[in-house]
Bifunctional diguanylate cyclase/phosphodiesterase (Planococcus faecalis), 724 residues
Amino acid sequence: MYTNELERDKKVIIEWLRRLGVEFHTSFLIINSEIENHPIVYANDAFYKMIGYSEAETLGRNGRFLHGEKTAKEASDKVRACVASGESGVVEIVNYRKNGTPFWNEISVEPLSFPEKNFNFTLMLQHDITDRKRAEALIKLQKETYRGIEKGHMLSVLLQDICQTAESFFIDSAKCTVLLIDDDEFYKIGAANSMPKGFQEAISGLAVEEDIGTCGAAFHRQKLVVVEDMGSDYLWRNHQQLVKEYGLVASWSIPIFNVEGKTMGTFGIYFSVPLTPHEEDLAFMEEIGSITSLAIKYSQQQEKILRLAYVDEHTGLPNRNYFRNEVAELLKEKREGFIAFISTDEYVAVVDQYGHSTGDTIMSEIGKRLMLSQNSSEGLIARFSDSTLAMFSMMPFTKIPEYLEHLLQGLVEPITVGDMELFLTLKIGVAVVTPHQENSEELIRCADSALSQAKLRTGEAICYFESEHDEFMMKYLRVANELTAALRRNEVGVHLQPKVDLATGEILSFEALARWTSPDLGTISPDVFIPAAEKNGKIRLLEQNILQQVLDWMKKRVEQGLKIRQVAINISADHFFHHSFVPHLMDMTAEYGIDPQWIQLEITERIGFVDIETANKVFKHLKQCGFTTSIDDFGTGYSSLSYLQKLPVEELKIDRSFISNMNEPGTLAIIRTIIQLAENLNMRAVAEGVETEKDRQTLLELGCKVGQGYLFYKPMPLNEAFFL
C-alpha cells in the first residue's frame, strides 16, 4: 500500500511539472535523481524541437544519448556530479541532434526536492549557444591566425587550423578543404587533411572549370554553390568514382576573395549525408572565408618579406640574419651542441676565374651535401657570407668530432665547375655550445675566430675555439669608437614598443628603443653598445639622435593627419644632469613643431642618488616646460621613498625581472606594493615584460592598468609603427 502511495505521489508531481512545462518557453527536461541511470521523466516541447527527437524516443533514457564524438568527457562528468551531489551548476557541452548535427548546449542544473514526500528530481534548463560559440571561435581563430603569421607558420598549417575549426561545428563526417587557384586556374591543395589522400591527389593540379565540381562552380560564379546529392548532380558527373569511393553525398563551397575582389581560391565542406545549409551556416562560412582570405594574403606577404630578409637569393640557403635569430633561439633550450663556420680554399680562385655566379654554385652545392649528410633534424645550414657557410647542430659534446668527420665524408666527391671537376679543401671552425651560454653573437664570433685559425693550416682542417683572445674592454672600446660613425651613417635606428591598456589592449603610448646593426660588427645588443657609449662619453650624442628620429616620426604623422601618441625616451644620468639637456629638448621640439607633452623622459631610479636636489630642479623644469617623466626599472636599484616623494614624476615602471617571477609570493608582494605606492603618490604604474595572459590577469587584479611586453607587441621599426 505504501509503495502504491509513493507512485501515486510521484505521478502527481510529474503532472504538476508537466503543467509547468506548458508555460515554460525555455527548453528543459527533468530527470529522476533517485534512480541510478537518472532517466528523463519529462521534457517540454521546446526541448524536443531543439534535439529533433520525439517524446517516445526521449523519455526513460539517460541524457548521454545526446552525446557524440565532440562531447567532452569533462563536461559530461560535471553534469553527472551536479546531479549526484544535488548542487546547482552551469555546464557548456556539445550535444547532438537526431540528424547528427552537433550543437553547443548550456545546461543549468537545478535540484528539485520534495522533502515532505522524500522525492528528488533534477531540472535541467537547456539553451542552444552554438551561435555564441561560433562567434567566439571566429574571434579566437582570427587572433591565432595573425599570431601564426607573425611567427612564420606555414600557410598550410594556418589553413588546416581554419578547416578544423569549421569542421567542429558540423556533423562528425564533415570534411573541409581550402583549394588555392593559381593564375593559370589550376587547383592547388591549401588544406585538406580530413579528405582521403586519393581525393587530394585526384583534385590537385586539375583545371578549374565552371561546370565541374562544387568548388569550380563557386570559383567561376563567385557565389555559394550547394550540391545536396553529389551522386546525381551534373557538376560531379566526371568524378562519380571519387564520390562513391569516399562516401561523399553533399558539398557546399564558397569563393575566397582577395582585397581587390579577385577570386583566389575556394572553401568547401563535404558531408556523408544529404545536408542543406541554414542561414546561420552560411553566415559562419562567410566569416570563415574572410579569415581564410586574410591568412592567404598576409601569409604570402610574410613569406615574401621573410624570404627577402632571411634567404640568400643566390643559393636559396638561409642567410646570416636567419642564422643569427635561430642561434639565439637555440641557446634558450639550454642544451649541448656546436656552431661551425665552413669555408673552402678554392672559392677565391674559382670566383676570380669564373665569376661570382660560379662561386654561388659551389656554396649551394656544399650546402646541399651537408644537408644530405646531416643525421639530425635539429640543425641548420646557412650562408653567412660570400665564402662562408654557418651551421649549428644539437648533440652531446662527445659526439661532435665524429659527426664533423661524417660531414666531411659527404664532401669528398668533386664538384663540377664549368668543364672541370673541382676537389674542395674545407676549413671548419667550431664553437662548442654549453647549456649555460646565453650570448649568441659571442658564440658566432668564437666560431668565426676558430675558422680564421683553421685557414692558417695546410690542407683540410677542423679547429675548435678554446679560449678568449679579446680583452673585455677592447670590445667596449671598439663598439664605442664605431658608434660615432654609426650615428653619422644612420646605422642606429629606433624601434617603438607600445604601452597598452591592460584591460582592452588599446595602445596608449610608445617607448623608443635604440637598435644598432653595423656592416662590420653585425647586430649589436643595446646591453653592449649603450654601456659602451656611457663609458666613453657618447651617450648624449646617441640619445639626441634617438630624440631626433622620434620627433621626425611624429612630425610625419602630424602631416598625414594621424593620431599623435606620447613617446618615452630613455635618458642617462650623464645626459639628464648636463646643462644643455632641457634647452636642447625645447629647441628640438620647437624645430619639429611637436608639443612637449608628447615626449616623456624615462630616467632610471638610480638618478635620485646622484644628486637629489639638482635632480628635483631638473624634474620641475621639465614639468614646467610641458614634458612628462617616468622612473624606469623601479625596485631594482636604490628605491627610496625619501627621494621619490620629492620628485614631480608621473609614472613608475615595474621592472620586467619582477613580472617574470610573479609566481613567487615575495615578488608578488613587491609588485603589489609598487602599484599601491604609485597610486598613493598619484603616479601611474606601468608593468614591463608582460608576456602571458596570466601576467596580464594578475596585474589587473593587483590594480595595474598599463603594461608593455610581447603579449601585446614586440619592439618594431618606426615604419611598422607608423600607422598604429
